[in-house]
Amino acid sequence: MKFAFPILTAKGEEFKDVKALTELINGEQSGHYLLGNHNKWHGGIHISDKSAPWCKDKYPVRAIADGKVVAFRMMKDYLTSEYQGESLRYSNCFCLVQHEYCEINAETKAKNEFTFYSLYMHLLPWDKYQSAEKLVLKKGWNARNSVPHANPDAEQQRVDAALPRFTLPKDTELEMDSSAPSQKGNVGGKEYDFIKVIIKSKLSNAQIKEAEKAGVLVSERSSVWIANSPDAVEVIKPNVPTWLFDQIEAELSKNMAGRADPVSNDKSGRLMAGSGSVSLPAGTKLQYDAHQLEFHWIGDKARKMARCKYVMPSGDGVQGSCGIAWVCVEDEFIKAKTLPPSHLGELYVLPSPVAIAAGETIGYLGLVETPGSLIGGKKSKHQVHLEVFTQDPRLDDVLANKAGTKGGATYAKVPVGLVLHEKKKQDGKDLWVATADKSLEALVESPGLEKDATKQEWVCVSSGKYVKKEQVELLSQHDWLKIGFKTVDGTGSDGYLDPDAPPAFFTDLVKSFDSDGNGELSSEEIQAALQNSSNADQLHKLIVKHPSEWYEKSSASSYLWLNKLMAKLGLPDFDLLVDHEKQRIDKLEWMQSATKLTLEKDSWHFSPVGIMALAIKAQNGHPRTYIGDTLNEIEFLSFYNGEVVEESDYVNAASELGCEVNAIKAIALTETGSTGSYYKFSDQDDAVLSILFERHKFSNMTDGKYDKSHPEISNPVGGGYGKYKVQYKKLMLAYSLDKNAALKAASWGKFQILGSNHLSAGYKDVNEFVSSLSGSEKNHLKAFVNFIKADNRLLKAIRAKDWLAFALVYNGPRQKGYDKRMKDNYNAL
């Protein structure tokens, strides 16, 4: 499963890391995890136009992980409520996405898995989505009443220079005026396409008067001409959530494969994409039901697929071929025709959930207007409420890492009082010398591991300070509870932090991460602890069971605290405010009404920031292996997901190649039968892709420039391979000299395919090839099939079991008995 940040930066880019996103969200004045406004429980976080104004209409909120849209409510317009004579608008639009978390122990194949949901509440209603492209000025840019000449003579230049113009300010919003086509014009000796646009932004009175003085009308909805330069004009296309639509008409924007029905992988549970059954050229017309999308795995990627009716382009008056096939319908491959969405204005549970990818559009921030005070007025902001929750009983096993899954981010749990050591040099050797300092209790992320001459392993726990490995507990990101995640059960809580009598639930929340306090906690102390940014790390690791705020209507017992508060205060205006809020509570409820989802009242809530911090850190991380005596992260590898090539995979591959299953198995046994597809040297390192570094290939690819300085890894003569334990040491030295050549000079995986053959193996570059094979053993077989199909000599030889002919091409003219070993392995099978 892939994860993504829920929003982009103001520049439309990915956030550098979770910390950068957290700093932005911390600027929100309300809607924090665990405790929201008015001393009330809050199960999610708010992202608003106060911190991310670009999410109002420019860059939408996105799905945080691969999953399926299972329910939504999309209204045509905002709902309104009345308070003290003021009409207040708000959005009850939402999208609910279901996700399947699954991590596999690469050795035992045991799984940690559970189902969770992400909720996106207060989305922009349908009628507020832009229907056409919007233009936004990146900088101050001139507006004109007319277009200057395209090829002006001297006199025309003087006339053009005198034409009225006014500089529109940066961030002015415009839309195309379809009443006039674009025209060529010359400014300062440079030719531009001039376009007629309508001003959408409201400029200040001073700006309007200044423009009038210059002879240009720039009031709202006025039309002007501007030079259409990408340096000054940003085009923002309508970004409508595709999960709203069912029947879609589209056109392929590039050549694609139409595929047969998917094949289920029994062990992983994945749907593997069917084989290519038809080649569909760009321009092919597609029709499909977007509420019947599925994720099918192609290589190491889950692709969004639809079962499409297709009609190929016609040629020479002949009707194009038509049929039905599975096609990848992601945005980069198709141009979809926008059709009116169905099921507007209702709570809709999809009969067949719609696949959605991490980072795919959910929607824009919706407007929420609230009473300004007891006597009236209003406060306005655009926001989305993002919530992550589960009701899956398997959560306990996942948090305890019952499957013993490893990989991803690593940690060292250091107890207090250990003797700290420093690394010194003596006679050219590294020695670890005890100091007078003692360790503090700590959880060290990505600890460095090294071995001394006696093979004693040392863990770096702070800058230049080490302890013996056996003195600490080494953990992975899958050890949720051991790395600081905690659960708090608030079942039965009404979620109100009573100032006079703080309930035990909120006291338990604070004491779960702050054990220094003695005795009872006041409401003020609880509020301060839960809203203190210095406690953010601990708060984001709390997983809390609590009744959902979206489950019940205002008449339920969980809202009795409001009635008690009304009786206590005895203020008529407050009574009116409570009545107003109860009306909204009833309109916002969805969970109990969506009966087909069979969701219950109580859910375990996660901090969205906390779960993203864990997942994205792993997603962006890389496996570690020993280079000499030091454990190093290998930046070009992906974590191995534990998948293996199964008998059904061999059968499918043999069918595609037209050869025997045992012929493929014999080649695999010959190449890596003694070492396996992955290397793992200790309990601390990760499984990494098996390799053989070939020095003569590296020498050839780098024109021998390193032959003299590094003969052990660059030599025109082959050989000198050494044991498999030194292969990554050689590779990383070569990688430090020439990254691309190093990866191409190694043979990779179960079938030892040379990196330089990545194109024949079905990959656009060697980095994609290496990353894919390191992630799943199944991709080794797919790469092998592609490689064999790309060379007719190999295809012919494997079908005939002509081992000599096969080895002379596959292993090279100096194949040194590979043919005999293949034959022997085949006969043994």
TrEMBL record:
Pfam families: Muramidase. Transmembrane segments: none annotated. It comes from the Bacteria. GO terms for molecular function: calcium ion binding. Residues 501-536 form the EF-hand domain. This is Uncharacterized protein DUF3380. The lineage of its organism: Bacteria, Pseudomonadati, Pseudomonadota, Gammaproteobacteria, Aeromonadales.
